[in-house]
Specification:
pyridoxal phosphate (chains A, B), about 35% helix, three-stranded antiparallel beta sheet, PyrdxlP-dep_Trfase_small (chains A, B), Aspartate Aminotransferase, domain 1, alpha/beta, Aminotrans_V_dom (chains A, B), homodimer
């Protein structure tokens, strides 16, 4: 049976990436060595890292002011590493919260300096993104979460700010073109649109660094990582390699414009299906619906386990909503084929006919 | 040509681990999904994590006082995470330094509290391990590096201490049996004896935690990782899986007694060869020679590039000494076959006949 992987992350990756990664574990580029046993200070790995960094710069059209790093850990590490590097003890950071991850990011920032919550969509169960808010003029930065994996909302137009703009893009990185040069800092765990779990990508505009007074542990210091060319210590070699392969795939497929086109086609089909079937209820404000994670409910809660069971029988993986939200969540990352969305939409229509 | 992988890390892994890891990327345990695209909160991954943790406990014969964690990052992360969790601002930690890594660990600790260097073998170019030293009675812990990857020394009898004993075992973890319950804290990057780069293993005796006053960022807090069963955030799934496979291999091969037997046989052969050939000079004190990393020199520095070139032609990888030390370094981790050591010893004998 063909499986449809709607996992929210770790999640579906392109088949060609899997095949190349599998092969590289047996023999990496004809070296006779596995990618798992090559040194990280070899020309072999340097070529992998160089291509990964160059691919990010190309896809995001980044200028020379921005550096790209591949670091250990996931976004949760960045929740503390960002304020450790950017927020002084007595300074203030602005956090715009639309869900669980933004809230966690703000909590970690409060360990390092002052935090002003400029918006919090908890007042409507995080089903929308607040567009009206004001940022303290002296704020060291504004932090946003570009896509809310759990709640199914996404920023479709990034806010204009005079203060440096920082974004957690873990769950929608590389899903669409945008003016990424506007951001002072972008971070993303790899395990959704960029590769396998175990590596973090960071894009940083160098001028925001070096301004805090605290002493930063070496492994947490972005400036030292930049100086070391992302090779301060042994990096997560294989995870960087899988990211490089995934980035290469995105470029070969047509880059971010093509990803956006596909993602919009998939999301349109799914949201239209939800909207057309009274059995299903979308909860997210239409204008804030995520291209990546669609969250919706069955009107009759008793039908939810029945629907989940049918999904399972049809080989549809990962459609149960997050534990704090409930309902259904369909994640449609870059590598998810249109045919998988068609499959679940068919099932929804059929289910509605039978149960509606 | 058969390659002999003497890399210092990332380094050689068992062939069966490579084959299983390669296969799991295409289809993990018959799930139809790749190990790279399964959720970390599935029963599939929980079984991997459970086996990895249970294998560590079995191999080290750990009692219930000790917990095992698999965390993001490498030992360099632990250099700061250990003092962040164990060393209060006004308290003192004792560091026993025998080389580059121990020195780096002490430098990071100084960001968090007071550091007393109880021994430093820099006085003899880190070619030995000081056994005579005294530890401040009030020290929060004594930190040692069990094996010095760069310098080629190893503790063969761990020090008796009244204060908690903390060890960086990155480069000799699981190389031999010992009373590991004596340690309050052990950490090791995976990429030598335990798996692929991108994951850290931590063994912690719970009673040493929770004693510092500072507020610890969530992702750095060992107590929170213990409470979350090593699943606080998305772990480096594939790297944990490779560690699990490697630990399974160690157990199947006969556990730590068998690893020690093999490691001693390999090291004995290599050191006997070095000692028997006047062309080569060992630098490390005999009693402190490492089972894992043998460092030695050619008497005539002009012959060094010639020897390295011959190694290369014979498919011997990773034998150039570390940049700050120079000379030759032969790393002989658990997964390195005796035949590889025999091959380089043959070459050394042949080289000595021709050039001696």
């Amino acid at each position: 049976m063909k499986l449809h992987n709607f996992n929210s992350g770790p999640s579906v990756l392109p088949q060609t990436v899997m095949e190349q990664a599998s092969q590289a574990i047996l023999d990496f580029n004809g070296t006779g060595l596995s990618i798992l046993e090559i040194g990280h200070r070899t020309t072999h790995f340097q070529a992998v890292l160089d291509e990964a960094i160059a691919s990010v710069k190309q896809l995001m059209d980044l200028g020379d002011d921005h550096d790209v790093l591949f670091l250990h850990g996931g976004a949760t590490t960045q929740f503390m590493q960002v304020p450790m590097n950017l927020l002084d003890d007595q300074a203030t950071a602005a956090y715009h919260i639309n869900g669980i991850w933004g809230k966690k990011a703000a909590t970690e920032a409060a360990l390092f300096g002052k935090v002003t919550i400029v918006a919090d969509s908890a007042d409507r169960q995080n089903t929308y993104i607040q567009k009206e808010f004001s940022i303290p003029e002296a704020a060291s930065y504004l932090h946003i979460t570009s896509n809310n994996t759990v709640e199914g909302t996404q920023w479709h137009q990034f806010p204009e700010t005079s203060v440096p703009l920082v974004a957690d893009m873990s769950s929608d990185i590389f899903c669409r073109p945008a003016n990424y040069n506007r951001f002072a800092f972008i971070y993303a765990g790899a395990q959704k649109n960029m590769g396998a779990a175990g590596v973090n990508m960071v894009v940083v505009r160098k001028d925001v660094l070096g301004k805090v007074n605290r002493r930063i542990p070496t492994i947490m210091d972005y400036q030292k990582h930049i100086a070391a060319g992302s090779l301060m210590n042994t990096p997560p070699v294989f995870a960087v390699y899988v990211s490089m392969l995934t980035l290469r795939w995105i470029i070969q497929e047509g880059g971010l414009p093509e990803m956006e086109k596909r993602n919009q086609a998939k999301a349109n089909l799914l949201y239209q299906t939800i909207d057309s079937l009274p059995l299903f209820t979308p909860t997210v404000a239409k204008e804030d619906r995520s291209l990546m994670n669609a969250v919706f409910f069955l009107n009759d809660p008793a039908l939810e386990p029945v629907f989940l069971d049918e999904c399972k029988k049809e080989g549809m993986i990962g459609v149960k909503g997050y534990r704090t939200v409930g309902g259904i969540r369909v994640s449609m990352y870059n590598a998810l084929d249109q045919s998988s969305v068609e499959a679940i939409c068919s099932l929804m229509q059929d289910f509605a006919r039978r149960k509606g």
